[in-house]
Amino acid sequence: MMKRPDWDSYFMDIATLVSQRSTCMRRHVGAVIVKNKRILATGYNGTPSGITHCDVRGCLRDQLKVPSGERHELCRGLHAEQNALLQASLHGVSLEGGIIYCTNQPCSICAKMLINAGIREVIIADGYPDQLAREFLEEGKITVRQIEKVESKP
Description:
Elements: H1 7-19, E1 30-35, E2 38-44, H2 54-57, H3 60-63, H4 80-90, E3 99-104, H5 108-117, E4 121-126, H6 131-139, E5 143-146
Parallel strand pairs: 3-4, 4-5
Antiparallel strand pairs: 1-2, 1-3
Helix pairs in contact: 5-6
C-alpha cells in the first residue's frame, strides 16, 4: 500500500517542483501559497516577463560580486515569494490567512511583503543568510517552521 505524503510534504514537494522553472544562476527557489489546503498561487525566482533571463544574459550579482543575502535590489530577477504574491494580485486572489511553502527562507524584502499580504505562516525547507528577515517575521507574528524536504516516491 502506498503511503500518502502529509500536507506539509505534499506542498513542499510542489514548491520544489516549481523551483525547477527558475532561471537564476545562483539558487533555484520555489514558493507555493496555500489556504485551506488549496493552492492559491505559485512562484519561482527569475526575471520579470519580457526581460532576458539571467541564464542567457549572465548574473548581475556575480558580475558585481554581491554576496548572497545582501543588496537584493542588485538583481535582474524577482524572488519566488514575490512572484507568487504578484500572481495572486494579478488574478485578484486574497492571501490573507494563507501559508507559504518556500524551498528557502524568505529575505527581508519578501518577509515585509508577506506580512502585508496577510500570510500567517511560512514553512521552509532550507535557510537563507538574512537574520533581519527572521526578526521581521517574528515581530510580524508570523510563524516560521523548517521542515525536511523529502522527495515523494510513486
